Amino acid sequence: RVTVDTAATGPAISDDMYGVFFEDINRAADGGLYAELVQNRSFEYDRADNASYTPLTGWAPRSGDPQVVDDAGRLNERNRRYLKLPLPGGLINAGYNSGIHVEKGKRYDFSVWARTDQATTPLTVSVTDPAGAALADPLRLTVRGATWTRYTGTVTAKTTSITGRLLVAGGGAGTLALDMVSLFPRDTYKNRPNGMRRDLAEKIAALNPGFVRFPGGCIVNTGSHYGYDAPNYERRRSYQWKDTIGPVETRATNANFWGYNQSYGIGYYEYFQFAEDIGAMALPVVPALVTGCGQNQATDDPALLARHIQDTLDLIEFANGPADSTWGTVRARMGHPAPFGLTHLAVGNEENLPDQFFARFTQFRDAIEAKYPDITVISNSGPDDTGATFDRLWQLNEDAGVAMVDEHYYNSPTWFLQNNERYDSYDRQGPKVFLGEYASQDNRFYNALSEAAYMTGLERNADVVRLASYAPLLSNEDYVQWRPDMIWFNNRASWGSASYETQRLFMNNVGDHVVPSTATGTPSQEDLPITGAVGLSTWGTAASYDDVRVTSADGTQLFADDFSAGDANWTNIAGRGTWAVTGGAYTQSDTAAENTMVMAGDPAWQNYDLNVKATKQS
Ligand code: AHR
Prior knowledge:
By secondary structure, this protein is α/β, with parallel strands linked by helices. The protein folds into three domains: 18-28 and 190-519, Alpha-Beta Barrel (TIM Barrel), CATH 3.20.20.80; 59-187, Galactose-binding domain-like (Jelly Rolls), CATH 2.60.120; 525-616.
């Protein structure tokens, strides 16, 4: 029975409450949301990114002996490697997943930076299938002289293919130098050049998100304790927003925490533009110089800290400064003279060293608030939903009057069902909660349902929980580092998970305020799935279960009993003999997967298809 108090008005719910968290994990950016079709377009893939990489990953020589070099003839200081192609010669790029996806009748913009040691060199660009059959009429360009120059052209696909290849071939004699070999669909989201893949961007836009948290996650703070001048590998692991802006050929590619190379083709400008395009608030996360995500290191270099703090102030100017300010000029030059209107910014992500993190966070916050008092500076509570780090960080945040605290947790669906009341007891006067990352641990309908149930608890506490985003947002099905994920894709298609539909439902139906209600009734039965042949039972997370009913697949009840944490066995149930617990007694734990016990009983029950239902008591 649900009783609704129509006379009362509960907390207001912000239109921005539900948003998305985009991190370049599972190849969410290159080969994903970033529409570029060529993999490793600037030959910067490196063993430091991934042990399997070479500078020619993604490429195969077609003829001649193409060599990637790093010498004084480079395109620029931050795009150091380029290709030397002895002529005649050519090489082929295989794109991502099964290849380059082209659609009949659609246009694709090719571009390349090139120079030649000849007066002129003919360059032929072909989009083919793996056997070499043309998918479009070839593009013929002429490279002139020894100065790096950008050459462009457009091809129109004559045939649809999901296994396309890009062949770049030079004729004549001498050596051709190539860099930034790009094939970009003309058809991007909002037709932006250097833009987003339309189907993925549209799926995100269809959520109607209130905000976009970016760029991470673990990729943000990883390596941030290394200095700017640290040697190659360490330096490359640190994500710094200034590396990600300006013309794409000047953006230094970087090793990604998740084990691949990131081109920064989607950089801070593109994040802000995308957030604006989908009507969402941009919410960047900057590193706090204390690494989380298993690294747990803090820097004690005051100069490095000062530089990161200054970078953060510069970031705010890049987003909000007038078009004639130092960083506002850069934004204007990139195509957006008007400010982006940044209002929130998070410092740090899941730090496991509470005191070290908070000491640095405080310095960031002081500097930001001194110059930009209207910006909300968000702190966090570490990687877990509970525990010593969580408690310490909350204490520090509360004591310092922090405006908003980022919480993260990935738990079982049962946890989400059992913790609906989590925020009912939070201090109404304390810091607000930004639930920046959460998901129940699978991509099944039951997960989506448990998340929906949980979100009613978030919404009921909208005066405390101000922002919430499921995580991660995207996953390329062939490059998975983390699951579950909200939207899945490959090189040609994308599809939302059941959790996507939950998020879409909530984000498109945000109420104005909570209508207080109470519910009474009998506890519902919980499915306790049995897996394995001999009654290997994976239990839920309650301390005790009453009226446990075991039925055969056709619904026939076989036995019923009560069961509590610590019970060692069931005996003599329904005349079926002793059921000994051979895999350890049932102990209450947070995840159903940990509550595994093995019941060995009447051999006649071996391989029996069992269903277990119980009424959860606590
Ligand atoms: O969402 C995936 C990862 O989970 C994020 O990078 C990190 O913040 C968290 O541990």
